[in-house]
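Margin note: ligand = manganese (II) ion.
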Amino acid sequence: MKKFSIYFLAIFFITLASCKKDTTSVLTTAPIGSANALFTPVATPPTDENDSTLLMGNPSQASATSDNNYLLREGYYSVSYNCQYGRPNWVSWHVASSDYGSQARLDNFRENLNVPVGCNAITPQSYTSSGFDKGHMCPSADRTSSFNANSSTFLMTNIIPQAPNNNQQRWARLEDECRTLVQANNEVYIISGVYGEGGSGSNGFVTTLDNGRVTVPAYLWKVIVVIPFGKDDLNRINNSTRVISVLMPNDNTASTDWKQFRTSVDDIETQTGYDILSNVTTGIQTIIESRVDTL
Ligand code: MN
Ligand code: MN
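Resulting structure:
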């Protein structure tokens, strides 16, 4: 009898030890809903079609067949990854108030091993002393509902070399604005990306980091579609839907004013060659994409 309890106790601790190993794997791999679920409550990533991270469309037709336009679906956001440039082309996600919770910022920046075969996974070390911040596309603060949600935003495939003052000032204020809109009973679809080569960080103008592993983008852009919280989102987008679009240089000017960088979706489409909001009816796209937000 006693022998048996010792046996079960041993099994219990061996199980504990192996589970513990699984929690550390959360920090190095992306999968959601695996054995990690034993130790971290898994908030279901937004896979429902209504709140899909790609509900507005796939701006560059990213897929598994193109290394420089490689589709990564992380559950909490989707990415077009560029292997040659070592950073995303764009990231697309959805935010509702249920995405906000009590998870503290994890700061577990790490390589994403799900990049295309033959493509070097970028590590946080590529940014060390570079004069550029590890700038999030999908922000940490948009994903605080669970450990996995927040952890997902620190994969380096969601990160670009961003001028520190841009990241910490006007870009950060724009991110705050999105959260203010969500807290005012809206939900938002956000598509954010970069293009061009070379930006000015705290050490001046730079084209690449870490011996060419990461190309510094010249511009950052973001498109925010704002709709009242509800169901059947795509069908609720109409000619008067508010769309906030910005296009700003990746430079280190100190300013919190993001509004001066507002432009039209059409302008961003011209610069990037993408079709943003491609799932919206063409007639509605024509109207909402030509408008520049003034609120
Ligand atoms: Mn940031
Ligand atoms: Mn479009």
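Confidence is low (pLDDT under 50) at residues 8-43.
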